[in-house]
User: Which sequence fits this backbone?
């Protein structure tokens, strides 16, 4: 990697941490300069605008988040075990996720829905990939007769993601892990109920 | 109500709609001027700062949200019916709620958690009132032997609020009501499962 690429990557990483905590609208150019230790020119050398940096930072954050799941799922067999791995991985997020400020998909969904069409579209795509990961696990589970055939794979994706993201919001609002623990227990039980008995 | 009070209330209402869509950091003084049709001086006549207006606007939005539930619950008897009323009221929110931009508690929780201690505390209190409303219904339901005694009222509050808020996030991200419908079906089923059989 060239020195310029290294600098660019470092800016993206530091901006991702900043944006994920303060939001895109809430992060000024001075905040970005303070977070990266660079002058305005040093940042504009690599990005044409704050928006271009925001998009690169979101892509990086979303990829970091998605990689955690792919790693955790490696070697895990069986639909129920794989769904539980996703639930478990999410519920340990606040401590272990490399980017501060919670889930970048949740944060950017809330911030961009009424204001930023490009980031909204990016978030839709990243969230779709997550929904689709769950959809595929459930679909395969039905094919392999591990999961009841009446189960709707898309509905499982909605319930898992809604409950996890909502409980993360409560956990971060109160600084109290109990909400994510309750969500984990509830979803583990829900997922067990999908099994062919 | 005096003319000054009327103007102040109108500013609060219009600012609540603006902040709930664009966020506090994302709403500039010019945005507030455009939304209210007032000059800067006209706004500063009633509020010492953007922050003071932000807090008044949040209080107004949170009160509007809470009133919807209190109205919907009037005359509803029985813990299961009352919990289902809350779920139903929430799942019709995007169309019927008087303030645009989704749930002010969710939006402000996400925006303020890392950035705005006063708004965060306001959101904690408003969210606590909502959690407590659900807690009290479940507690009474256990006392009246409608709900199983092993059920934890606080856990029910966490699951209902997490799933509803998370599904609202998905519904607004994709402009698709299906996510809230799925959450409603899931929670109706969950709540039915708490009943003494």
Assistant:
């Amino acid at each position: 990697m060239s020195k310029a690429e290294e600098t660019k990557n470092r800016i993206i990483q530091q901006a991702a941490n900043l944006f994920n905590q303060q939001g895109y609208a809430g992060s000024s150019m001075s905040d970005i300069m303070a977070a990266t230790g660079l002058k305005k020119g040093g940042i504009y050398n690599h990005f044409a605008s704050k928006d271009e940096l925001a998009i690169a930072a979101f892509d990086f954050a979303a990829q970091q988040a998605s990689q955690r799941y792919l790693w955790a799922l490696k070697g895990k067999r069986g639909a129920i075990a794989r769904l539980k791995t996703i639930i478990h991985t999410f519920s340990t997020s606040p401590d272990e996720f490399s980017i501060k400020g919670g889930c970048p998909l949740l944060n950017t969904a809330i911030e961009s829905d009424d204001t930023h069409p490009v980031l909204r579209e990016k978030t839709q795509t990243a969230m779709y990939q997550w929904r689709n990961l769950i959809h595929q696990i459930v679909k395969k589970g039905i094919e392999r007769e591990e999961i009841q055939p009446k189960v709707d794979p898309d509905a499982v994706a909605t319930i898992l993601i809604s409950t996890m993201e909502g409980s993360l919001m409560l956990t971060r609002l109160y600084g109290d892990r109990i909400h994510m623990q309750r969500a984990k227990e509830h979803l583990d039980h829900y997922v067990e109920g999908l099994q062919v008995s």
The mean pLDDT of chain A is 95. Chain A has one domain: 55-192. The interface with chain B takes residues 21-23, 25-26, 100-102, 106-107, 109-111, 113-115, 120, 123-124, 127, 154-155, 158-159, 161-167, 169-170, 172-174, 178-179, 182-183, 185-186, 190 of chain A (CB under 8 Å). Residues 112 and 120 of chain A are 5 Å apart (CA to CA).
